[in-house]
Amino acid sequence: MSLQPIKIGLLGLGTVGGGTINLLRRNAEEIARRAGRGIVVISAAARDLDKTRTLSLEGIRLTGNAQDVVADPEVEIVCELIGGIEPARALVLAAIERGKHVVTANKALIALHGNEIFAAAQRKGVMVAFEAAVAGGIPIIKAIREGLSGNRIQTVAGIINGTCNYILTEMRERGADFQTVLAEAQRLGYAEADPSVDIDGVDAAHKLTILASIAFGIPLQFDKVYTEGIGRIGAMDIAYADELGYRIKSLGIARHAGDGIELRVHPTLIPKRHPIAGVEGVMNAVLVVGDAVGPTMFYGRGAGAEPTASAVVSDLVDVVRAMTSDPENRVPHLAFQPNAMSDITVKPMESVQTAYYLRMNAVDKPGVLANVTAILGKLGISIEAIIQKVPDPAANVVPVIFLTQRVQERNMNEAIHAIEALDSISGSVFRVRVEMLE
Fold it and tell me: Which domains does the chain have, with CATH numbers?
Protein backbone atom coordinates (compact mmCIF):
# COMPACT_ATOMS: atom_id res chain seq x y z
CA MET A 1 0.00 0.00 0.00
CA SER A 2 1.41 3.38 -1.04
CA LEU A 3 2.20 5.99 1.58
CA GLN A 4 0.00 9.07 1.96
CA PRO A 5 1.38 12.28 0.37
CA ILE A 6 3.22 14.72 2.61
CA LYS A 7 1.16 17.88 3.10
CA ILE A 8 2.77 21.27 2.65
CA GLY A 9 1.76 24.75 3.82
CA LEU A 10 3.05 27.75 1.83
CA LEU A 11 3.71 31.16 3.36
CA GLY A 12 3.64 33.51 0.38
CA LEU A 13 2.07 33.20 -3.06
CA GLY A 14 4.40 35.47 -4.97
CA THR A 15 6.76 34.58 -7.79
CA VAL A 16 8.52 31.73 -5.98
CA GLY A 17 5.36 30.46 -4.25
CA GLY A 18 3.55 30.22 -7.57
CA GLY A 19 6.55 28.57 -9.20
CA THR A 20 6.70 25.99 -6.41
CA ILE A 21 3.03 25.03 -6.82
CA ASN A 22 3.42 24.74 -10.60
CA LEU A 23 6.55 22.61 -10.32
CA LEU A 24 5.06 20.27 -7.70
CA ARG A 25 2.06 19.70 -9.96
CA ARG A 26 3.84 19.43 -13.29
CA ASN A 27 6.49 17.00 -12.06
CA ALA A 28 4.37 15.29 -9.39
CA GLU A 29 5.08 11.76 -10.57
CA GLU A 30 8.83 12.30 -10.93
CA ILE A 31 9.02 14.01 -7.52
CA ALA A 32 7.10 11.18 -5.84
CA ARG A 33 9.46 8.63 -7.39
CA ARG A 34 12.43 10.52 -5.94
CA ALA A 35 10.93 11.30 -2.52
CA GLY A 36 9.22 7.96 -1.98
CA ARG A 37 5.79 9.57 -1.65
CA GLY A 38 3.80 12.46 -3.07
CA ILE A 39 4.17 16.09 -1.98
CA VAL A 40 1.07 18.30 -2.14
CA VAL A 41 0.31 21.86 -1.09
CA ILE A 42 -2.88 21.93 0.98
CA SER A 43 -2.70 25.39 2.56
CA ALA A 44 -1.30 28.79 1.59
CA ALA A 45 -1.18 32.27 3.05
CA ALA A 46 -1.20 35.37 0.84
CA ARG A 47 -1.18 39.07 1.65
CA ASP A 48 -3.84 39.88 -0.96
CA LEU A 49 -6.52 37.20 -1.29
CA ASP A 50 -8.38 39.19 -3.94
CA LYS A 51 -5.43 39.46 -6.30
CA THR A 52 -6.09 38.04 -9.77
CA ARG A 53 -3.78 35.06 -10.37
CA THR A 54 -3.26 32.93 -13.45
CA LEU A 55 -2.17 30.15 -11.10
CA SER A 56 -4.80 27.51 -10.29
CA LEU A 57 -5.28 27.21 -6.51
CA GLU A 58 -7.75 24.32 -6.66
CA GLY A 59 -7.49 22.10 -3.60
CA ILE A 60 -5.49 24.68 -1.61
CA ARG A 61 -7.00 26.40 1.43
CA LEU A 62 -6.22 30.12 1.24
CA THR A 63 -5.86 32.44 4.21
CA GLY A 64 -4.73 35.99 4.81
CA ASN A 65 -3.22 34.97 8.15
CA ALA A 66 0.08 33.11 7.91
CA GLN A 67 -0.32 31.81 11.47
CA ASP A 68 -3.29 29.74 10.22
CA VAL A 69 -0.91 27.75 7.99
CA VAL A 70 1.63 27.28 10.78
CA ALA A 71 -1.08 26.11 13.17
CA ASP A 72 -2.80 23.79 10.65
CA PRO A 73 -2.49 20.27 12.17
CA GLU A 74 -2.46 18.68 8.70
CA VAL A 75 0.57 20.67 7.54
CA GLU A 76 3.78 18.69 8.02
CA ILE A 77 6.24 21.03 6.29
CA VAL A 78 5.99 24.83 6.31
CA CYS A 79 7.49 26.54 3.26
CA GLU A 80 8.43 30.17 4.06
CA LEU A 81 8.56 32.24 0.89
CA ILE A 82 7.53 35.72 2.11
CA GLY A 83 11.06 37.10 2.58
CA GLY A 84 12.31 39.75 4.97
CA ILE A 85 12.99 39.30 8.67
CA GLU A 86 9.65 39.76 10.40
CA PRO A 87 7.14 38.17 10.46
CA ALA A 88 9.20 35.42 8.72
CA ARG A 89 11.41 34.80 11.76
CA ALA A 90 8.46 34.53 14.17
CA LEU A 91 6.57 32.23 11.78
CA VAL A 92 9.55 29.92 11.23
CA LEU A 93 10.22 29.65 14.98
CA ALA A 94 6.51 29.01 15.62
CA ALA A 95 6.50 26.21 13.03
CA ILE A 96 9.60 24.66 14.62
CA GLU A 97 8.04 24.88 18.08
CA ARG A 98 5.05 22.93 16.74
CA GLY A 99 7.40 20.21 15.50
CA LYS A 100 7.06 21.06 11.81
CA HIS A 101 9.91 20.95 9.33
CA VAL A 102 10.70 24.20 7.48
CA VAL A 103 11.89 25.02 3.97
CA THR A 104 12.86 28.63 3.28
CA ALA A 105 14.26 30.72 0.43
CA ASN A 106 15.01 33.61 2.80
CA LYS A 107 18.74 34.45 2.71
CA ALA A 108 18.44 37.50 4.99
CA LEU A 109 16.62 35.45 7.62
CA ILE A 110 19.23 32.66 7.58
CA ALA A 111 22.22 35.03 7.47
CA LEU A 112 20.98 37.15 10.40
CA HIS A 113 19.04 34.65 12.52
CA GLY A 114 20.11 31.22 11.27
CA ASN A 115 22.11 30.41 14.42
CA GLU A 116 18.98 30.88 16.55
CA ILE A 117 16.73 29.03 14.09
CA PHE A 118 19.01 26.01 13.71
CA ALA A 119 19.47 25.74 17.47
CA ALA A 120 15.67 25.68 17.90
CA ALA A 121 15.34 23.07 15.15
CA GLN A 122 18.03 20.93 16.80
CA ARG A 123 16.14 20.99 20.11
CA LYS A 124 12.86 19.97 18.45
CA GLY A 125 14.40 17.36 16.13
CA VAL A 126 13.15 19.01 12.93
CA MET A 127 14.87 20.08 9.72
CA VAL A 128 15.30 23.56 8.26
CA ALA A 129 16.29 23.45 4.58
CA PHE A 130 17.47 26.57 2.72
CA GLU A 131 19.00 25.62 -0.66
CA ALA A 132 16.91 28.30 -2.41
CA ALA A 133 18.42 31.04 -0.21
CA VAL A 134 21.65 31.13 -2.27
CA ALA A 135 22.09 31.33 -6.05
CA GLY A 136 18.53 30.38 -7.03
CA GLY A 137 18.48 27.11 -8.95
CA ILE A 138 22.20 26.32 -8.53
CA PRO A 139 22.50 23.50 -5.93
CA ILE A 140 25.54 25.12 -4.35
CA ILE A 141 24.65 24.47 -0.70
CA LYS A 142 24.13 20.75 -1.29
CA ALA A 143 27.34 20.61 -3.32
CA ILE A 144 29.46 22.11 -0.53
CA ARG A 145 27.64 20.49 2.38
CA GLU A 146 27.44 16.99 0.94
CA GLY A 147 29.20 16.54 -2.41
CA LEU A 148 32.45 18.11 -1.18
CA SER A 149 32.26 16.93 2.43
CA GLY A 150 35.55 15.01 2.07
CA ASN A 151 37.43 18.22 1.28
CA ARG A 152 39.01 20.96 3.30
CA ILE A 153 37.45 23.93 1.51
CA GLN A 154 39.96 26.67 0.74
CA THR A 155 37.97 29.26 -1.23
CA VAL A 156 34.38 30.01 -2.20
CA ALA A 157 34.08 32.92 -4.62
CA GLY A 158 31.69 34.03 -7.28
CA ILE A 159 28.93 36.10 -8.77
CA ILE A 160 25.99 35.69 -6.41
CA ASN A 161 23.89 38.72 -7.33
CA GLY A 162 22.39 38.80 -10.81
CA THR A 163 21.37 42.47 -10.67
CA CYS A 164 24.96 43.67 -10.22
CA ASN A 165 26.21 41.29 -12.89
CA TYR A 166 23.57 42.51 -15.35
CA ILE A 167 24.50 46.15 -14.73
CA LEU A 168 28.25 45.57 -15.13
CA THR A 169 27.67 43.46 -18.26
CA GLU A 170 25.57 46.17 -19.90
CA MET A 171 28.04 48.89 -18.95
CA ARG A 172 30.85 46.93 -20.60
CA GLU A 173 28.98 45.90 -23.73
CA ARG A 174 27.47 49.33 -24.43
CA GLY A 175 29.90 51.72 -22.76
CA ALA A 176 26.94 53.13 -20.80
CA ASP A 177 27.17 54.78 -17.39
CA PHE A 178 25.95 53.18 -14.16
CA GLN A 179 22.81 55.28 -13.64
CA THR A 180 21.57 54.71 -17.21
CA VAL A 181 21.91 50.93 -16.95
CA LEU A 182 20.42 50.87 -13.44
CA ALA A 183 17.30 52.68 -14.71
CA GLU A 184 16.95 50.12 -17.52
CA ALA A 185 17.42 47.23 -15.08
CA GLN A 186 14.60 48.65 -12.96
CA ARG A 187 12.35 48.99 -16.01
CA LEU A 188 13.05 45.37 -17.00
CA GLY A 189 12.42 44.07 -13.48
CA TYR A 190 16.04 43.02 -12.83
CA ALA A 191 16.39 45.70 -10.14
CA GLU A 192 13.94 46.79 -7.45
CA ALA A 193 12.51 50.31 -7.19
CA ASP A 194 14.88 50.65 -4.22
CA PRO A 195 17.92 48.76 -5.57
CA SER A 196 20.21 49.42 -2.61
CA VAL A 197 20.15 45.87 -1.19
CA ASP A 198 21.51 44.59 -4.51
CA ILE A 199 23.85 47.33 -5.73
CA ASP A 200 25.33 48.04 -2.28
CA GLY A 201 26.31 44.37 -1.92
CA VAL A 202 24.00 43.51 1.00
CA ASP A 203 22.15 40.71 -0.83
CA ALA A 204 25.46 39.10 -1.82
CA ALA A 205 26.74 39.49 1.75
CA HIS A 206 23.71 37.56 3.06
CA LYS A 207 24.49 34.72 0.66
CA LEU A 208 28.23 34.77 1.34
CA THR A 209 27.55 34.52 5.08
CA ILE A 210 25.70 31.25 4.47
CA LEU A 211 28.27 29.83 2.03
CA ALA A 212 31.16 30.60 4.39
CA SER A 213 29.42 28.92 7.30
CA ILE A 214 28.86 25.63 5.47
CA ALA A 215 32.30 25.78 3.80
CA PHE A 216 34.37 26.41 6.93
CA GLY A 217 32.16 25.24 9.79
CA ILE A 218 31.89 28.67 11.41
CA PRO A 219 28.78 30.31 12.92
CA LEU A 220 26.80 32.63 10.67
CA GLN A 221 28.43 36.07 11.02
CA PHE A 222 26.83 38.56 8.64
CA ASP A 223 28.14 41.52 10.65
CA LYS A 224 31.73 40.48 9.87
CA VAL A 225 31.36 40.63 6.05
CA TYR A 226 33.15 43.56 4.40
CA THR A 227 30.64 44.96 1.90
CA GLU A 228 31.19 47.43 -0.94
CA GLY A 229 28.77 48.20 -3.77
CA ILE A 230 29.22 48.89 -7.48
CA GLY A 231 27.82 52.44 -7.57
CA ARG A 232 31.21 54.12 -8.09
CA ILE A 233 32.29 51.95 -11.04
CA GLY A 234 32.47 54.08 -14.17
CA ALA A 235 32.41 53.11 -17.84
CA MET A 236 36.05 54.30 -17.98
CA ASP A 237 37.06 51.77 -15.30
CA ILE A 238 35.49 48.94 -17.26
CA ALA A 239 37.33 50.10 -20.41
CA TYR A 240 40.68 50.48 -18.58
CA ALA A 241 40.27 47.04 -16.99
CA ASP A 242 39.64 45.58 -20.45
CA GLU A 243 42.81 47.25 -21.73
CA LEU A 244 44.75 45.59 -18.91
CA GLY A 245 43.24 42.16 -19.67
CA TYR A 246 40.58 42.10 -16.94
CA ARG A 247 36.82 42.21 -16.42
CA ILE A 248 35.12 43.90 -13.46
CA LYS A 249 32.68 41.70 -11.57
CA SER A 250 30.98 42.10 -8.22
CA LEU A 251 32.22 39.07 -6.28
CA GLY A 252 31.55 37.47 -2.94
CA ILE A 253 34.80 35.96 -1.64
CA ALA A 254 35.20 33.64 1.36
CA ARG A 255 38.74 32.34 1.83
CA HIS A 256 40.47 30.33 4.53
CA ALA A 257 43.68 32.32 4.99
CA GLY A 258 45.23 30.08 7.64
CA ASP A 259 45.13 32.64 10.43
CA GLY A 260 41.50 33.57 9.80
CA ILE A 261 38.61 33.67 7.35
CA GLU A 262 38.25 36.40 4.73
CA LEU A 263 34.64 37.45 4.13
CA ARG A 264 34.19 40.20 1.57
CA VAL A 265 31.85 41.45 -1.16
CA HIS A 266 33.17 44.09 -3.56
CA PRO A 267 33.80 44.94 -7.22
CA THR A 268 36.80 42.93 -8.42
CA LEU A 269 39.06 42.83 -11.44
CA ILE A 270 39.52 39.24 -12.62
CA PRO A 271 41.49 38.02 -15.67
CA LYS A 272 39.43 37.79 -18.84
CA ARG A 273 40.63 34.22 -19.30
CA HIS A 274 38.96 33.04 -16.08
CA PRO A 275 35.60 31.24 -16.61
CA ILE A 276 33.82 33.58 -14.16
CA ALA A 277 34.83 36.56 -16.31
CA GLY A 278 32.61 35.16 -19.06
CA VAL A 279 29.49 34.92 -16.87
CA GLU A 280 27.21 37.63 -18.21
CA GLY A 281 23.80 39.19 -17.62
CA VAL A 282 21.73 37.95 -14.67
CA MET A 283 23.52 34.60 -14.44
CA ASN A 284 25.34 33.44 -11.28
CA ALA A 285 28.50 31.37 -10.92
CA VAL A 286 30.31 30.06 -7.84
CA LEU A 287 33.87 28.77 -7.71
CA VAL A 288 34.66 26.31 -4.91
CA VAL A 289 38.24 25.17 -4.30
CA GLY A 290 38.82 22.06 -2.17
CA ASP A 291 42.14 20.50 -1.22
CA ALA A 292 41.23 17.17 -2.84
CA VAL A 293 38.97 18.12 -5.73
CA GLY A 294 40.73 21.36 -6.73
CA PRO A 295 38.67 24.10 -8.40
CA THR A 296 35.03 23.36 -9.28
CA MET A 297 32.55 25.83 -10.73
CA PHE A 298 28.75 25.95 -10.53
CA TYR A 299 26.79 28.06 -13.03
CA GLY A 300 23.12 28.86 -13.55
CA ARG A 301 20.22 31.18 -12.91
CA GLY A 302 20.35 32.87 -9.54
CA ALA A 303 16.73 34.03 -9.43
CA GLY A 304 13.34 33.63 -11.08
CA ALA A 305 10.17 31.66 -10.40
CA GLU A 306 11.14 28.20 -11.61
CA PRO A 307 14.91 28.21 -10.91
CA THR A 308 14.24 29.16 -7.29
CA ALA A 309 11.25 26.81 -7.10
CA SER A 310 13.57 24.05 -8.31
CA ALA A 311 15.70 24.57 -5.18
CA VAL A 312 12.61 24.77 -2.93
CA VAL A 313 11.25 21.47 -4.28
CA SER A 314 14.69 19.88 -3.94
CA ASP A 315 14.63 20.81 -0.26
CA LEU A 316 11.11 19.41 0.12
CA VAL A 317 12.26 16.10 -1.37
CA ASP A 318 15.24 15.99 1.00
CA VAL A 319 13.05 16.71 4.02
CA VAL A 320 10.52 14.05 3.01
CA ARG A 321 13.30 11.49 2.56
CA ALA A 322 14.72 12.28 6.01
CA MET A 323 11.47 12.57 7.98
CA THR A 324 11.62 9.01 9.25
CA SER A 325 15.35 9.07 10.03
CA ASP A 326 16.97 9.55 13.41
CA PRO A 327 17.40 13.35 13.92
CA GLU A 328 20.92 12.78 15.21
CA ASN A 329 21.97 11.17 11.92
CA ARG A 330 20.64 13.74 9.46
CA VAL A 331 22.87 16.02 7.39
CA PRO A 332 23.72 18.95 9.73
CA HIS A 333 22.13 22.28 8.83
CA LEU A 334 25.49 24.02 8.47
CA ALA A 335 27.41 20.95 7.21
CA PHE A 336 29.40 20.41 10.42
CA GLN A 337 28.05 18.82 13.60
CA PRO A 338 26.64 21.56 15.89
CA ASN A 339 29.17 20.77 18.64
CA ALA A 340 32.08 20.86 16.18
CA MET A 341 31.81 24.41 14.85
CA SER A 342 35.09 26.32 14.59
CA ASP A 343 35.84 29.52 16.50
CA ILE A 344 38.41 30.72 13.95
CA THR A 345 38.14 34.48 13.59
CA VAL A 346 36.97 36.46 10.58
CA LYS A 347 39.84 38.70 9.50
CA PRO A 348 39.33 42.49 9.48
CA MET A 349 39.47 43.89 5.95
CA GLU A 350 42.65 45.88 6.64
CA SER A 351 44.60 42.64 7.17
CA VAL A 352 43.45 41.05 3.87
CA GLN A 353 45.99 40.78 1.05
CA THR A 354 45.01 41.42 -2.55
CA ALA A 355 46.23 43.28 -5.65
CA TYR A 356 44.74 46.64 -6.66
CA TYR A 357 43.61 48.75 -9.59
CA LEU A 358 44.10 52.45 -8.79
CA ARG A 359 42.72 55.32 -10.88
CA MET A 360 43.70 58.93 -10.21
CA ASN A 361 43.76 62.29 -11.99
CA ALA A 362 47.28 63.73 -11.99
CA VAL A 363 48.22 67.32 -12.83
CA ASP A 364 49.96 67.38 -16.21
CA LYS A 365 53.50 68.29 -15.15
CA PRO A 366 56.85 66.48 -14.72
CA GLY A 367 57.64 64.46 -11.60
CA VAL A 368 54.07 63.54 -10.62
CA LEU A 369 54.39 59.82 -11.38
CA ALA A 370 57.72 59.71 -9.57
CA ASN A 371 56.05 61.09 -6.43
CA VAL A 372 53.28 58.49 -6.60
CA THR A 373 55.63 55.57 -7.23
CA ALA A 374 57.84 56.74 -4.35
CA ILE A 375 54.88 56.53 -1.95
CA LEU A 376 53.97 53.08 -3.21
CA GLY A 377 57.57 51.89 -2.98
CA LYS A 378 57.98 53.20 0.57
CA LEU A 379 55.02 51.05 1.64
CA GLY A 380 56.29 47.95 -0.15
CA ILE A 381 53.73 48.12 -2.97
CA SER A 382 55.08 46.79 -6.27
CA ILE A 383 53.65 48.06 -9.55
CA GLU A 384 52.47 45.56 -12.16
CA ALA A 385 51.42 48.03 -14.88
CA ILE A 386 50.79 51.73 -15.52
CA ILE A 387 48.48 53.33 -18.07
CA GLN A 388 48.70 57.09 -18.69
CA LYS A 389 45.87 58.46 -20.80
CA VAL A 390 45.63 61.57 -22.95
CA PRO A 391 45.54 64.77 -20.84
CA ASP A 392 42.26 66.61 -20.44
CA PRO A 393 43.20 70.11 -21.76
CA ALA A 394 40.23 71.74 -20.06
CA ALA A 395 41.13 70.42 -16.61
CA ASN A 396 44.93 70.12 -17.12
CA VAL A 397 44.84 66.63 -15.59
CA VAL A 398 45.90 63.22 -16.88
CA PRO A 399 44.00 60.03 -15.95
CA VAL A 400 46.60 57.56 -14.63
CA ILE A 401 45.92 53.91 -13.81
CA PHE A 402 48.17 51.70 -11.67
CA LEU A 403 47.89 47.95 -11.34
CA THR A 404 49.73 46.72 -8.26
CA GLN A 405 50.88 43.37 -7.00
CA ARG A 406 49.41 41.84 -3.83
CA VAL A 407 49.73 43.89 -0.66
CA GLN A 408 47.98 44.14 2.68
CA GLU A 409 44.94 46.43 2.60
CA ARG A 410 46.31 48.39 5.57
CA ASN A 411 49.33 49.44 3.50
CA MET A 412 47.16 50.36 0.53
CA ASN A 413 44.92 52.52 2.74
CA GLU A 414 48.00 54.39 3.93
CA ALA A 415 49.31 54.80 0.39
CA ILE A 416 46.02 56.16 -0.93
CA HIS A 417 45.83 58.65 1.94
CA ALA A 418 49.36 59.89 1.15
CA ILE A 419 48.73 60.06 -2.63
CA GLU A 420 45.53 62.05 -2.16
CA ALA A 421 47.50 64.56 -0.05
CA LEU A 422 49.80 65.39 -2.98
CA ASP A 423 49.16 68.79 -4.59
CA SER A 424 49.69 67.15 -7.97
CA ILE A 425 46.75 64.72 -7.54
CA SER A 426 43.28 66.11 -8.24
CA GLY A 427 40.40 64.60 -6.24
CA SER A 428 40.31 61.16 -4.70
CA VAL A 429 42.01 57.92 -5.71
CA PHE A 430 39.56 55.25 -6.89
CA ARG A 431 40.45 51.61 -6.18
CA VAL A 432 39.13 48.22 -7.21
CA ARG A 433 40.63 45.05 -5.77
CA VAL A 434 42.16 42.47 -8.12
CA GLU A 435 41.86 38.68 -7.73
CA MET A 436 43.38 36.03 -10.00
CA LEU A 437 41.04 33.31 -8.58
CA GLU A 438 43.71 30.68 -9.21
Answer: 6-137+305-337 (3.40.50.720), 140-301 (3.30.360.10), 350-434 (3.30.70.260)
